[in-house]
Structures are given as structure tokens and as C-alpha cells.
Amino acid sequence: MSRFVPAEWAQHQAMWIGFPSHGELWLEHLEAAQAEVAALALALAGPGAERVKLLVAGPDALKAAKALIGSMAGIDLVESSFGDVWLRDTGPIWVKHGGEIRAQGFGFNGWGGKYDLPEDHGVAASLAQASGSPLDTTDFILEGGSLDHDGFGNVLTTRQCLLNANRNRGITEAAAEAKLATTLGVKKVLWLDDGLMNDHTDGHIDNLARFVAPGVVACPLGYGRADPNTDLYGETARQLMGMTSHDGSALQVVRIASPGRVEDADGQAVPASHMNFLIANKAVIVPLYDDAEAGAHAVEALASLFPERKVIGLPSKAVLTGGGSFHCISQQVPA
To answer: Is 328 a catalytic residue?
Structure first.
């Protein structure tokens, strides 16, 4: 029987979220990041109608999570060791195979050797076990944030990441496509070129382009004169408009305002993106950054694309100091 990855808008039985737990990694941003992640968990368990599995490491993090979450129903605190919160990349990708839900684990090397924390290597197995899912494994190095699925076998990705020599040296497009077909049931890979400027993931797709419905892809529209990725966004939209799904149908492309230029404490542009939204059972949670007007435009646009869900914008600037946002710290288990 064939396997496939359900679209993110399909029903979930649970949503895993990583809770910032390591002061030596988050430094002065730890408490603010914990508060942002707690707000995300509360929104998911409330209007999002999700069973949230909040992964925490160590007694201090557990105490902080309990204080922020309170007695909110629908949130389970799960204690386990992990390197950091980026479960989209370190955790498994859940697939449906016949009538069974299975977890597919991949090789992980810290985004090409940049941040290789030993305890991250056991996350896929621990999440699969805690979810009661059989785990399949492969040595193929892949992060979940490098792929976006439509539930029909079409996958968006970037060459910058998937073909990067710092993951699977010497791999070709054809070889990568074969691996994705075997492990995830992918029928067609829609290749874009590069991801956002200064993205340490080497261009994860979940900051650049996302399926929002079958055959419909959202990608950013540069906001403000200083947005460093405006030209990239235009080229991305142009490439998408020339693509077709595996059944030959053309993609519909929707542009959504970017956050504009967002900087770190040193004045360097960071890869902030409204595309890092998270689709829950009854809500869509959108990360917000510095520009309130840009955020409002993004929330409004996504509300028009998900009329059956409540679209909620939440601050994610502290989480972004760690290198990602809401989609990066999550992974859904399909129903």
C-alpha cells in the first residue's frame, strides 16, 4: 500500500510543540521565548481545538511551563531530553500507510553541521514512542521544515537546502526525488531555488512558500523599501506560476505581505516570515514581528484563505532569536 503525508490542514490527533528549556542556548531571551510558546500552546488548545503535547526538558523548564500554562485543558506537558525546540526538523514526519499512522525518521546533522546538539538525535524516536507510532528510519538527511505537502503527493522545497552538500553530499535532484518517493510517498517535487537571506537552515521552504489548499500556494510580497528579500519573493512567485501539480494542473499563487526588514541586536537582517504560520484543527496561528501593519495585512490575507478557521496573530520575535518561529517548533500527528 502507498504512503502519503496528509496536508497540514487535515485533521490532527495531536500537535507537538517544543518549549524553550535551555538557558545556555536562549540566554536573555529565554523567558520571553517561553512566554511566546506558552501563548501559542494556549491558542492551539483553545480556539485551535488541538491536543497539544508540550515537550519540556528539565525541572526548571517544567516549572516555567506549568506557571505559564496553568490548568488549561488540552495541553499535556511531556518531559524528555532534547537539544532544542525545533521539532519540525528533529522530530519525525508522520505518514499514513494504508490504515496505519507511522512516523518517518530521517538523518539529522544540525542543519549541515551548524548546530549539532547530541540530544536532538533521539527526538524522532522519543516522539514516535510517546505517540504510539511505529517508527521507520533512513540515513537520508532531511529536516521537516525543508518540505511542504499538499496531501496529494506534491511537495514544495528549495534546491539550496535539499541539494546542499552539507546534508547529503553529491545528491542529485533525481536521487532526492527517489528518496522522498520511498519514504514519504511524494509524487512530484516542486523545486524552488533559494530561501531567505541569512537563513541558517539553508533555505527552508516553510519561510518561503506554503500550500494553503490543493493547488494553491502562498508566498510573500515584499513589504517596505528595506525588505532584503523582495527580489527573491518576486522570483519565487514567478517560478511558482510556471509550475504544475503531478496531475498537470497549474498552481494558483497568492501573495501575502512579508514582515519587512527585521533585524537582530547587531542590525543584521534575520529570516522573519509570515509563511511560518501553523495550521491547527480550527485555527491558523501567524507569527508577528516588528511591523503591526504588515502583520495585520498577513492575518487578513490568511483569514480569506482559511474562512473556516480562526486566524490569530501572536508575537514571535523572541522565538525568532533562536532561528525560527511557530511552524519550526511544531509537528502534527494526523488523525
So the answer is: yes
